[in-house]
Each structure stands twice: as C-alpha cells, then as structure tokens.
C-alpha cells in the first residue's frame, strides 16, 4: 500500500472517531442523566427510549440564528470554536487503541509529552471566546477558566509524569506495554489525581465554574448561538473521550484485557473508554458545583501536594525494585 494512502486512511479513521465517539457519549449522557434523575424529556423524542434526542438537538442547533455581537471582535469570535476543537483532534492522532503500529494514526516516542502540550491549548480558545464577546459575563467566565486551567494543569502533568517515570518511557504505546495489574495499587493516587484534574481541564461538573449558569448566564459561551455553540458543546464531549482515553492508556492498561489482546485489544480499549466516560457523566449528576475558592483550594492544597508525594513514591519504588 502506498504511504500516502495509508496515511490518508489513518487520518480518515481518526476523523470518523472524532465525529462519532463524542456523539455516542452525548447520547449516553442524555440517557444516563434521564435514568438517574427521572427526567422524562430525553426519553421522549423519537418514541422508543428517546432514541432521536441527539438528532433533535442537532436540528435545533442548525435552525438557530447565528448571531455575532455588534461590539465583538468578529474574527476572534468566529475562530474560537475551531480552536476549541482542533487540539482534541490532534491528540486523537497519537492515542493507541491496540497493539502494533496499525492501531495508532501517528506513533510518537514522545507521545505523552506531545499530548500534554496540545491539550493545554484549550485555554486559548476559552480566552478567545471570552475576550472577543464584548460581554462582562463572558469575560468573567474566561478569567475563571484561565485560573482554573492554569492551576489544574500542574497536578495533571505531575500525575502523568508519575506514570512515565514508572514505565521509563514517554511513548503511549510503551507505557501500555510496561503496564502491569499491580500499577492499579501503587499508581492509584496518580490515577485519581489525573482523572480529577482532567475533569477540571475540560470544565466538567463539579468543575464548571467558568460557565456557572446560576451566576454568569453561561460564562464565556453566553454570546454564542447555533452551530458555533454546538461546536463548543462538541469540544466538551470530545474532551471527555480524550480524558477517558488517556486515563485508559496511562493507568488502566489500554488494550490489555482478560484474553486475546492482539485480536481484541481495540475492543478492550473502547470498553474502558466508555466506562470512564460513564463515570464522568455520573459525576455531573452526583456532585454540586464547587465555589471558586473551593476549586482553587482543592487544586493547590490537595492535588498538587498529593501529586508531588506520588512522584516521590514512584521514584522510591523504581530505585528499590
């Protein structure tokens, strides 16, 4: 097979996953929240089990008028949704879903470093949306998001560094190959820190203070309508998939399952990703939104010290064993 054709197939496969997996997670969120909170609305559209709810949402976004505030910086305002989506698409290119080079679009020896660098770009899209909207509520939401993302980036990176130190490599595929079940014990604090900081990175409840609809209308998204708002919503669901996939690859063994890793590795990866995504949805239902001071205190006084202690533990274990 020609190289250009192989690259094209891999990119198209990742792009298809980029478009379909977030929609599956979005549909699952409708249904899970409907069951947990006894909501009737998401179970109504289309008849059986509300199967057409996601279709109805898509039609609604397409029909809505696309408005740009008169005082807004139009170029930046329109670019922000695209900037919010692109980093997650790039990250999906380097996440392995199975063993061997055929199950990752672009294998990198420094895959973890690349992923952490690209995911951090998300704060730029939030600041672009907030500043260009010419709206005080949006600006307040953007400032909250900047403070939150810059703060939680530190424990997020430290927890990932613990796994990289344990595996002795920055390659995502290499980390999965080095993984063993007992990592679930001694890397458990890093797993919890990484997952919690990841929720804050994608601004999911209970870390959704930048939106805080009871205080800031809808935060940095206040002035967005129609498809541009839908792009931000899609970015949130892609973010869930990316955080779940990274948690799976770094801490849960990636494609390694109870049997037939070589043949069914992709299936074990997807099952773990959907299981972690379910937990993300569950958190939205189960926990109230943190106050801004609680959010920052939890980051700097709890997660960062624990992440540093986990690094020390990993270093000791590596030296002793």
Describe it.
With 321 residues, the chain is mostly helical. The chain has one domain (3-320). Helix content is 71%, strand content 0%. It has 13 helices and no strands. Helix 9 runs antiparallel to helix 11 (226-251). It is globular, with a radius of gyration of 20 Å. The model has no long low-confidence stretch (mean pLDDT 88).
The first-to-last residue Cα distance is 44 Å
Please report the number of helical segments. 13
Series of H and E elements: HHHHHHHHHHHHH
Mean pLDDT: 88
Low-confidence stretches: none
- Give the structural class: mainly alpha
Q: How many structural domains?
A: 1
Total strands: the figure is: 0
Helical amount: over 70%
| Proportion of residues in extended strands | under 5%
What keywords describe this structure?
321 residues, mainly alpha, 13 helices, 71% helix, 0% strand, globular
Overview in brief:
With 321 residues, the chain is an all-alpha fold.
Topology summary:
Elements (H helix, E strand, L loop, with lengths): L2 H35 L15 H11 L10 H19 L18 H9 L2 H11 L3 H32 L4 H7 L4 H4 L1 H14 L11 H4 L9 H26 L9 H26 L5 H29 L1
Helix pairs in contact: 1-11, 1-12, 2-11, 3-4, 3-5, 3-11, 5-6, 6-9, 6-13, 9-11, 9-13, 11-12
């Amino acid at each position: 097979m020609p190289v250009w054709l192989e690259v094209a197939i891999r990119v198209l496969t990742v792009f298809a996953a980029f478009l379909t997996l977030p929609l599956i997670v979005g549909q699952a969120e409708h249904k899970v929240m409907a069951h947990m909170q006894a909501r009737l609305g998401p179970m109504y559209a289309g008849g059986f089990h509300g199967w057409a709810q996601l279709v109805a949402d898509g039609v609604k976004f397409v029909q809505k008028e696309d408005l740009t505030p008169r005082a807004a910086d139009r170029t930046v305002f329109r670019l922000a949704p695209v900037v919010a989506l692109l980093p997650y698409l790039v990250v999906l290119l380097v996440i392995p879903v199975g063993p061997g080079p055929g199950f990752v679009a672009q294998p990198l020896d420094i895959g973890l470093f690349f992923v952490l660098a690209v995911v951090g770009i998300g704060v730029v899209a939030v600041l672009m949306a907030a500043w260009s909207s010419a709206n005080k509520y949006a600006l307040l939401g953007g400032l909250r998001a900047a403070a939150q993302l810059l703060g939680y980036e530190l424990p997020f990176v430290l927890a990932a560094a613990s796994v990289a130190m344990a595996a002795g490599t920055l390659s995502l595929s290499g980390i999965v190959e080095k993984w063993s079940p007992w990592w679930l014990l001694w890397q458990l604090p890093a797993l919890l820190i990484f997952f919690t900081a990841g929720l804050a990175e994608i601004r999911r409840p209970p870390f959704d203070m930048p939106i805080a609809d009871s205080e800031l209308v809808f935060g940095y998204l206040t002035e967005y309508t129609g498809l541009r708002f839908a792009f931000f919503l899609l970015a949130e669901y892609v973010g869930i998939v990316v955080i779940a996939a990274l948690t799976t690859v770094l801490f849960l063994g990636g494609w390694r399952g109870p049997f037939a890793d070589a043949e069914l590795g992709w299936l074990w990866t997807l099952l773990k990703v959907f299981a972690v995504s379910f937990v993300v949805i569950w958190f939205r239902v189960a926990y109230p939104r943190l106050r801004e001071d609680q959010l920052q205190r939890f980051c700097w006084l709890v997660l960062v010290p624990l992440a540093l202690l986990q690094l020390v533990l990993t270093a000791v274990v590596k030296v002793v064993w």
